[in-house]
Amino acid sequence: MKGMKARKYLKVLPVAMLVLALGACDNDNDDLVGNWKSRSDFDGYARNSAASFVLDGKGYVCGGYKSTKPYRLGDLWEYNPTTNSWEQRADCPGVLRNSAVGFAAGGKGYYGTGYNENDEYLKDFWEYDPATNTWKQLEAEFPGSARHSALAFSLKGKGYVGTGYDDNYLKDFYCYDPATASWSQVTGYGGSKRYGGCVFTIGNTAYIVCGSNSQGYTRDLWAFDADKNTWTEKRKIADVSDENYDNDYNIVRSFGVAFTVGDHGYVTTGTSGTLRTDTWEYDPVTDLWEEKTSFEGLAREQAVSFSINGRGFVTTGKSSSNRFDDLWEFLPNDEYDEYD
Length: 340
Known about the structure:
Helix content is 4%, strand content 42%. By secondary structure, the chain is mainly β. The chain has a single domain (4-331), classed as Kelch-type beta propeller (Neuraminidase, 6 Propeller), CATH 2.120.10.80.
């Protein structure tokens, strides 16, 4: 077993979890580039299916699902990477939920959609002001259907929400402009419906990848250009071409996470029938993926991620028998070190 960092969790896990943990660390990281460093554990309940956003150089995690009643959550936690510390902020006063989305726009954080305690789909949105540590519900209603497991991202001072599940797999997208406090529909991309997908942004472009639908795991990758308000399909993320570049691709998954470090995007964790730890780096210039050092925490799905000032973080999530509260930072250009 290569990942020494995962060992500290094994002594407290049941036998079934030990088998899962051992399987999660099978990848030979000695042949790959990048290093995962353990940071300050998330101070809230261990959970899965939370939402996240970034404001003023700090990461925020809100809501999710924990192991004991009440299962759904509405608490908000702020991570400061400068001090490597967490601070609890004001709870969202809306319905407790999981599988919601979050985004930042105009200096505020936004949180909405998801499931409530009755497994009903939601479409309300709430605005968080970090200056006053207060929430208020948006008067402008989200124009899409109530849904869960959607995607959200921020570009050029606006927030975007789309995909997900409302008893149908979805691929619609909507834009929220805080300057006018209004929503508008964005022309959808031409590819697969999905829920449980991933999104990362590089410059003024967002990249939609992974997820699943009624046909299985999605293989397409779409780029949204906020300057042109257009979508462009990129190369598939599976070995489907006659060329050699994708021979080793094994990227497809659902309920993974994505983040940005510098000018590259990253996808890790998730499930494709079994839980995943493999990590992949996307180069938008070449439109190619390269495998990097595997995630060094225990294998999981339904985690959250955030990118802060060129740094990428992953926290929370769940396995078949456990929920997590560890926090990891990925250093893509560092040499793998199993002992740090």
